[in-house]
């Protein structure tokens, strides 16, 4: 119990350090006037409660599923914003949302994994560790990545625990959303500065690939956890190692294809042409997906607390601390569009269903945009 207590203290410490780092930064770079190069508009808006946890919106079969601090979980048609269902799990949330369109899972601050079906609570299961990463729901299983980077698998039908995977724990773990995602018949999870491929049926290790080599004079400086979101590019999974590197791993072979030194706090976006990331000063950079060759860098949004990016068609989008959504040309980095929300920070990485882009603000605004 003493060891677990020290680890919990370390997670809280690292969350505090990240918060202090962001609060002590220079003033945000003022926005310059922008003449839109492409057309886009807000197509619908909805509201939920405050969102202070690292919420990740789920996208399945034309439906966005989101949640707020209070435990409200809401499913909306992506094209129209029409409500599909809503539910309240009865407790404040620390992680969510994971969904395959049939089952939807979130985690409460009391370490309860809650799974809903059709907008009704199907089951709850206690977890041994704190969770801030949205669960993954796939193959009638619910997979959970805890802050200590242990991985837990449950039967989506009844909540029965199936297995747990735990690698040797690092001295410190980042209290930030990590990576847990499917790749064909493999479960890919972030484990310190590595991506690991697990057998989703048994929880056994298939491969490990290193994104970065931790460096520094102390445990805080050497912290290099993989942070989400990551992006799948055909057979590649590309991700960021905290404050260290952006890298792409061949998930078929379990080998690192390329890695580039690039300090940053949030995950990456991309497609089969470009991988795009935001560094610790909010410099936006792109690398060619095939080999990691630098493509372009934009410095017009420094210190604006940018979200992780998303690539949608031939454009990349990020949100900032004032609720602005910025679009860049994917291939050149040219600013092409800027649209406002409610003035509060964009809380999570934008997500897309078809051509509809959804952003969620800390004040609970759900804004759907679509290019024209």
The rounded distance between the terminal residues' Cα atoms is 57 Å
The shape is globular
- Average pLDDT figure: 91
Q: How much β-strand is present in the residues?
A: over 45%
CATH class placement of the domain at 31-54 and 303-372: Mainly Beta
Strand order of the largest sheet: 1-32-31-30
Question: Major beta sheet, specifics?
Answer: 4 strands, antiparallel
Oligomer: single chain
CATH domain fold name of the domain at 31-54 and 303-372: Lipocalin
| Helix content percent band | under 10%
Describe this structure in words.
The chain is mostly beta strands and 372 residues long. It has a domain at 31-54 and 303-372: Lipocalin, CATH 2.40.128. The protein contains 1 helix and 32 strands. The protein has one helix at 2-23, and strands at residues 40-47, 58-60, 63-67, 72-77, 83-88, 93-99, 103-108, 112-117, 120-126, 136-138, 141-145, 151-155, 161-165, 180-183, 186-191, 194-198, 205-210, 226-233, 236-241, 245-250, 255-261, 268-270, 274-278, 284-288, 294-298, 310-312, 315-319, 325-329, 335-339, 351-353, 356-360, 365-371. The strands form 8 sheets. A 4-stranded antiparallel β-sheet has the order 1-32-31-30, with no helix packed on it. A hairpin with a 2-residue loop joins strand 8 and strand 9 (120-126). The longest helix has 22 residues, at 2-23.
